[in-house]
Design a protein that fits this description.
Elements: E1 2-6, E2 11-15, E3 26-28, H1 80-83, E4 90-91, E5 107-116, E6 123-133, E7 148-156, E8 163-166, E9 185-188, E10 193-195, E11 220-223, E12 234-243
Antiparallel strand pairs: 1-2, 3-10, 4-5, 5-6, 6-12, 7-10, 7-12, 8-9, 8-11
Amino acid sequence: MWTSSSTELSKIVNHSRTFVCEPKTVSSLAICSNENVITTGNEGALLIVLKINETMDTIPRFDSIEKVTIENVLPEFCSEEVRKLSFQFIRCNKYDWGKEKFKDHECYDMKGFDIKFADNDEHLCYIQLWAAEQGINCVVHNHSDAFFCEVNACIVNGTGKGGMQYLISSKENYDPLTTLESQFQKLEIPSLYEHGPLWDIDAQKKPVLREDGTVVYPWHKWQSNTDDSSVKSFDIWMAFQFNAHLSAIP
């Protein structure tokens, strides 16, 4: 929770956030507290800070994934083994599942890390990075084998037009030969914005699960877009895969 001054309304505005924003919407990651203070509820909070370099006026546009560098800056109290871990983008056509799908396209993922509770080792969230050049369908899927609730935070939107696209209902079937692009709902996610849940939510605000415990989603995809620029660009986003049993909407 934080408080900011609204110049338009000339009054103090109180803001609060949970672990996700409203379903099928986007929300800015920016927190502008006029007191430089954020307060948490009784259970505390985990925060991930995304910060633009002070020398930059705008979000950069990368024309090569090699220009995106990842540094391990874990503090000295972490083990030497962990501090030496390197994080690199791997082109998806290097994987068995991506050899054909991304044979001629630049799509990358970066292995991430788990966040678990220290007292009982219960899984909370897995975080990883993805990147795709403009104009890429990053595979239509419905997480039929996934036991998590996933949202994405866009770090760099190369064209400003990329984001999630999804069929309006989880009961709507997808056929790559007959399903039209116009049937997908488009949810553009600007740089430093995130989207809310796409998964089905029941009356208790909990994720709807299939009989095997996987989470019910509509068919969806990340779709990087194109623009009139001749300069190559990439969408870069961070995926958060939350434990479905801890993902009731507050």
